[in-house]
Amino acid sequence: MNCRAPSRASSCVDSYAESVSEGEIEEQRERLLDGWDHVAAGWGRQADRTQSVASPISEWMIDHAQPTPGETVLELAAGPGDTGFMAAHRISPGGTLICSDATNGMLAVARERAQEQGVDNVEFKQLQLEWIDMPTASVDVALCRWGVMLTLDPSAALRECRRVLKPGGRFALAVWDQPERNPWATVMQRTLVELGHAQPPAPGGPGMFALAAPGQLQRMLEEAGFFDVEVEPVAITRRYASVVDWLGETRDLSEQFGEVWAKLPDAQRQEVRERVSLAAQPYVTETGEVILPGSSLAALAHA
Q: pLDDT by residue (tens digit) across 103-116?
């Protein structure tokens, strides 16, 4: 499978969905959903920190989508729901936020955070990104932060987002930028692979960087029927008190890393710590704090 040609930015993703059988797709989808349910509690524990880091992305999405009072906003793959909750304040009075996720575990986290934040103009729905169980042209704004690139068929997900938007509706989303711009994530994955504890991601399959290639997200949005597409990199910074703190967050948020870590004996865990500590040296301050850069691609598209 050749995924290098810049003129065919989406071909690798599309061909992956076409290269496996329907049965294999369903098995993979079930594994993905089970994985997200498994880490939902960890995402709940890390939700405040995650939203603090992600706030530049959420703010970009809300500022560009410009939800207004009385509108209906749909957040997809909402996780803890915080981007949608920001929109909920903008659409009051009279507006409704539909906070959705594919798993009950994540929806439970979002319900709890909505209660904590006093968000009361919200409904919760369990929805899949690749087939959104809602009427055509039923929402004014759709939001999806870091969800589309994790689906098995991102093209179908984007078409569904286009379908549920009213004419003139806005879609704001974010995917992760290229791996070299996100060492906070790649160091951990690379360490597991180098030590033989994990396999590298399948080429063209779902994952953090599945839509990171230059021009790919804009191309796929336009192919899904959107127009006036704007894509912009947004920088984030992740701060950890220590490498141990960084490892702890990763165990909570990454189903793969957490599963591998739980099975490792103490000696191999120590080996992982040492390898990560060595890779982290360029980002460690004199006080031992770890400051890691990151970049996300934020996009606005019109229906």
A: 999 999 999 999 99
